[in-house]
Design brief:
Blueprint lengths: L7 E5 L4 H13 L5 E5 L3 H10 L10 E4 L3 E4 H10 L16 H19 L19
Parallel strand pairs: 1-2
Antiparallel strand pairs: 1-3, 3-4
């Protein structure tokens, strides 16, 4: 499987409004052009999950994959992404002192209610022509 060189891959729920807003936030703060995106539902997203040995029926959360380094999911992925924004966001690393299961309890609660609280789309987001290069098919 081929991965974009020197880029981190964010897999997200393509029909979730909360997830879409998070992707837009990442793009806004991605000053170093570090991230590329694919929905969990896309063929590329499915291939990455198979490559990593992730059962896509079990994980319905955000996944951050740094090719050749590691992958993260749930709260750990969110913390790693936000930390990369720099500045005051770098302090998010503080939360890594807590066991993952604590952050994941909160993450799972929000994830379980995300469609009810934030809504759901009928289709995955279609990027604008300017952002198309950041999305992997």
């Amino acid at each position: 499987m081929e991965f974009p060189e020197g880029k981190k891959i964010v897999l997200f729920d393509g029909v979730c409004n909360l997830c879409d807003n998070f992707v837009q936030t990442i793009i806004k703060h991605d000053k170093k052009d570090e991230f590329r995106f694919a929905s969990l539902q896309s063929e590329y997203g499915q291939q990455v999950q198979r490559y990593l040995g992730i059962d896509s029926s079990q994980i319905k959360s955000i996944i951050l994959y740094e090719p050749g380094v590691a992958y993260y999911h749930k709260s750990e992925a969110a913390i790693e992404i936000i930390k990369s924004f720099g500045g005051v966001y770098s302090m998010m690393g503080f939360f890594k002192i807590f066991p993952k299961f604590i952050g994941n309890v909160v993450y799972d609660f929000v994830a379980f209610n995300r469609y009810k609280w934030f809504g759901k789309k009928d289709n995955c987001m279609i990027p604008t022509p300017e952002l198309k290069a950041k999305f992997l098919d």
